[in-house]
Amino acid sequence: QVLVDQALGSNTTDFDNQTLAVLRGRLVRYLMRSREITVGRSTKDVVVDVDLGLEGPASKISRRQAIIKLKHTAEFHLANEGSRPVIVNGTPVLTGESIILMNNAVVEFSSLRFIFLVNLDLIEAIRSETSKNNLVKTLL
Prior knowledge:
Blueprint: E1 2-6, E2 21-24, E3 28-32, E4 36-40, E5 50-51, E6 64-70, E7 76-80, E8 86-88, E9 91-93, E10 98-101, E11 105-109, E12 112-118, H1 120-139
């Protein structure tokens, strides 16, 4: 699940208890509320969670450009499924490759630039809960 919101002023750190991360552009911010989201360009035939066309010109962006996933290790991964590279902190991520997305990573899809912001408090709570569950499993 992704909520779309206007990117206004300095509210970039306004996370609630359901938002895992934010992909923040110049005009729009996408609130990531599920462990896996698809990023690309929506058309009448293809629907993606994050429609980059809302941020700006998206004609050079694949319909399914990337998947952002929160792994069980509590790390975010971006997998490029599009025909063009995605640039993360200046590093090209080619088709079929993936990269770990850290907090404050700069992510570029064609000419559209975003900042990836992680809700560190929520991720730490998830990491902590996962450790507890793993400890209980080892004790049983």
